Amino acid sequence: MAPQLDAFFKSVDTEADHYIDRLAQAVAIPSISAEEERREDVIKMGHWLKGQLEQLGAHMEARDLGKQPHKEHLQLPPAIIGRYPAKKDDSKRTILVYGHYDVQPANLSDGWATEPFKLSVDNKGRMYGRGSTDDKGPVLGWVNVIESHQKSGVDFPVNLLMCFEGMEEYGSEGLDDFIIAECKPGKFFADADAVCISDNYWLGTEKPCLTYGLRGCSYYSIEIHGPGQDLHSGVFGGTAQEPMTDLVRVMSSLVDTNGTILIDGIKDLVAPVTEEEKSLYKDIAFTMDNLYESLGSKTGIFPDKERTLMGRWRYPSLSLHGVEGAFSAPGAKTVIPAKVTGKFSIRTVPDMEPDDVDKLVFAHCNKFFETLQSKNTMRVFLQHTGKWWVASPKHWNFTAAAKAVEKVWGVKPDLTREGGSIPVTLTFEQATGKNVLLLPMGSSTDAAHSINEKLDRRNYIEGIKLLGAYLHYVAEEPTH
Amino acid sequence: MAPQLDAFFKSVDTEADHYIDRLAQAVAIPSISAEEERREDVIKMGHWLKGQLEQLGAHMEARDLGKQPHKEHLQLPPAIIGRYPAKKDDSKRTILVYGHYDVQPANLSDGWATEPFKLSVDNKGRMYGRGSTDDKGPVLGWVNVIESHQKSGVDFPVNLLMCFEGMEEYGSEGLDDFIIAECKPGKFFADADAVCISDNYWLGTEKPCLTYGLRGCSYYSIEIHGPGQDLHSGVFGGTAQEPMTDLVRVMSSLVDTNGTILIDGIKDLVAPVTEEEKSLYKDIAFTMDNLYESLGSKTGIFPDKERTLMGRWRYPSLSLHGVEGAFSAPGAKTVIPAKVTGKFSIRTVPDMEPDDVDKLVFAHCNKFFETLQSKNTMRVFLQHTGKWWVASPKHWNFTAAAKAVEKVWGVKPDLTREGGSIPVTLTFEQATGKNVLLLPMGSSTDAAHSINEKLDRRNYIEGIKLLGAYLHYVAEEPTH
After folding, report:
1. Residue of A328, A345, A368 to mutate, interface with B, max B Cβ within 10 Å
2. Which positions are annotated as binding Mn(2+) 1 (chains A, B) (predicted)?
């Protein structure tokens, strides 16, 4: 039978201002993981979060993740892990949830309309502030779910395991090994029956979605060097082979204007589109105007929504990010850079094995560079890799979430994939061996990572209801 | 008859330590024109120089050049101009000399072995310090020439006009108009019979040279933009046309690994090599090992010295300097830059008219970009231009300088051109209508603009003698 959620929902509405105030408190702590001088604030934020949950009776631990690799003077923020209720109820399912309490850098001078570390709510209910949607809103969503169960007297439907980290915006340093260790038998996360992550966004602004796939990312550097030091183009132009000349040629051999990857063999690694899959795209709530609005231009590759969504979700892409070591400032400098490093990455999809992609990339670059017959030296290497992830959207974890969406929002959710990567998703899947669900709270216009990041009040408050409802549906969903 | 220089030379040797101390005082003033916070030091340096010359009885003026364009809060350093003797002797020729008292930026942390603003003399007589060779040593050379004439009782052979500026390392802001105005009849520089600039270097380390040609430089930007703001490659990779993809293609269409310019029509603008010119190169004191040593590698384009010197002096070259607006830091960032600007410049030679070069560059880029059929927008524009300069090395100004070199160094100088640009050279030629001579003091290993800039004690002291001897020979050279 359908869960009785009315009292819980009513409490969420009653406590809305209190929950917004809680978000304001969290936003006020500038927990920027990428900035060394903010590390104390990140750690403070972790302990503040732990305190909020302890006040609600959760069993919480701050786990030391050691020192930051390559920056041994810097302590990593702790993994804040917990269990609610504090004592496990063996009659109930156990759901592991993940979020992060660190945020991207932000300065008023970057162009923010309001102070980034002060939550500012406008008359349309848009709550501006760094971390509001990414990911403090969703993380506090779980806290508020617990509080509204207590306040409404509704029995908590599951055993909730929590894993909140403080380095997500800086590569989740130290977290993978920790998760793998804690998912082993007898350890903290061993009992998880399913995993839920709320750290992504709706495809648009009106229709909720459940996300079952992510692309991977393999990031490469092409380093070309020749002279022993930077040269003056007046003195040496026309007498020396220039690394930049070779680099732009190698970079231009990788991809064309329409995004077609020109590396031999890459497209053979991509799983073919099935007829069933083709039919999925037409129903997704997405239009070309959505794309143009988010691009801020009409410079899309494809004229139709289906091929655009496939371009984002299920085909690989190759982006050239920039050049290190060359002149990159405004103005004019007549330098011949001695060593330049081109950066590019490939978004990967099923069935591309990262090792196979590496081999094709290296072979292509080396073969192309050879045709230049340059005396300069080239080295191509992988900077980092994260594999793609695709879950089954027919799993009970997703079925439960879909029912919760319908209960709270009154519509069936879109089933989406994402073009980006959330590497921890794959880690949780592999470490627990269980289904992982991405259940977003915010919408496509939230501007995570940009200036004027916001979370709509409606998405926050209804999102708290959604997370709570999900726990009720997932508690009683048939598992066969 | 040959000038009697012995007493003057002897005084230079006697006063050597005093002249080195004068250079140390000048180096100690960090007159960095490119750094706003050093502007007071640049101005201080100008007044210090004026004071040194006034103590020797010269008539000196500090001329206001106004505010810095686009930085109206910044006062430009004055042009320090002067005349020695203070009262013109109408029986003597008038020689106008130019130098600059500002320097390139320098920080110990850039990799200097010694404090850059403290002149440090090692046991091989290498005098390290920012500005030692570029251009405080040569500028003080003229001061020391005056002092040693006074101390030795040798009659000063010419009327010396001086023009010393404080913005050479930052585009000589404000100077061109000033020179043009002061060369007009009745103005300060109106009487100049010839011009001498000491602000370049020997081709090697052992043989002095006189320089009669410089390449010009036309500096361009290729700006390509598409999306309204930077995009995340996970979300938008594979759905949007990316400006960087187009930019590397346009940049790679300009030049190849061997430095061949691929812009239609450029090579037709270049003056053909005559048989007479061909014969000049083989006698120049330069070897391929000199090139490899200064490159710090063997990545030269041509295997022979003649073609290499022609590549530097008399053929155009095109260098790609870098990209503004893309990711240029170390590490990995998965950004799709919304607007990127590629920078490149062409070193120009006779008979390339800058306007013709612009037209060919714009036409090439626009035509090539059209073949990409991109929805992005491209704009190509000229950042700045400076024309090439070639003087007649058979002019009496050069003949006199060659005699001075032979007197001081015991060898005939190489007659060289340079690959770089000294735009003020052309300004003086056009404004005075007289012959301009480049008479370098330092050697090829002085590392002007780099870390560990130095001037050899020998080049400084013998260089003072050379400048003095030049004034004697130029005073009596037949002018037919």
Report:
1. A328
2. 134, 169, 449
The DSSP output letter for B14 is H
Question: Per residue in A276-335, pLDDT tens?
Answer: 888 889 899 999 999 999 899 999 999 999 999 999 999 999 999 999 999 999 988 899
Residues B226-241: pLDDT tens digits?
999 899 999 999 999 9
Window A:234-253, CB contacts with B under 8 Å: 234-242, 244-246, 248-249, 251-252
Task: Verify whether the Cβ–Cβ distance B328 to A323 is below 8 Å.
Answer: yes
Cα(A186)–Cα(A194) distance, rounded to whole angstroms?
17
Interface test with B, best of A220, A221, A232, A245 (most B CBs within 10 A): A245
Is the CB of residue A301 less than 8 Å away from at least one CB of chain B? yes
Token match 């994260």: residue? A386
How many interchain CB pairs under 8 A, A with B?
288
Written as one letter, the residue type at A187 is K
Band the pLDDT of A480: cuts 50, 70, 90: low
Using the predicted structure, report yes or no on whether residue A240 has a pLDDT greater than 80. Answer: yes
pLDDT (0 to 100) of residue B427: 96
Q: Which of A198, A188, A67 is nearest to A145 (CA)?
A: A198
Whether residues B226 and A251 touch (CB distance < 8 A) is answered with no
User: What are the domain boundaries of chain B?
Assistant: 5-215+389-476, 216-270+315-386
Answer yes or no: B246 catalytic.
no
Is there a contact between A337 and A223 (Cβ–Cβ < 8 Å)? no
Q: Which of these CATH numbers, 1.10.287.370, 3.40.50.150, 3.40.1010.10, 3.30.70.360, describes A216-270+315-386?
A: 3.30.70.360
* Mean pLDDT estimate for chain B: 96
Q: Kindly give, in sequence order, each residue whose CB lies less than 8 Å from that of residue B391, ignoring residues fewer than 6 positions away.
A: B212, B213, B398, B429, B435, B436, B437
B245·A238 Cβ contact <8 A: no
Q: Kindly provide the ipTM of the predicted complex, given to two decimals.
A: 0.89
Q: Over the stretch A121-167, which tens digit does the pLDDT of each residue have?
A: 999 999 999 999 999 999 999 999 999 999 999 999 999 999 999 99
Q: How far is A15 from chain B (nearest CA, A)?
A: 35
CATH topology of domain A5-215+389-476: Aminopeptidase (3.40.630)
Tokens of A137: 């809103």
Whether A258 and chain B come into contact, CB under 8 Å, resolves to: yes
Please judge whether B302 and A235 are an interchain contact, meaning their C-beta atoms are less than 8 angstroms apart.
Answer: no
Catalytic-residue membership of B102: yes
Contact yes or no for B369/B225 (Cβ under 8 A): no
Token pair of B193 as six digits? 């019979």
Q: Which two tokens stand for residue A210?
A: 């459940």
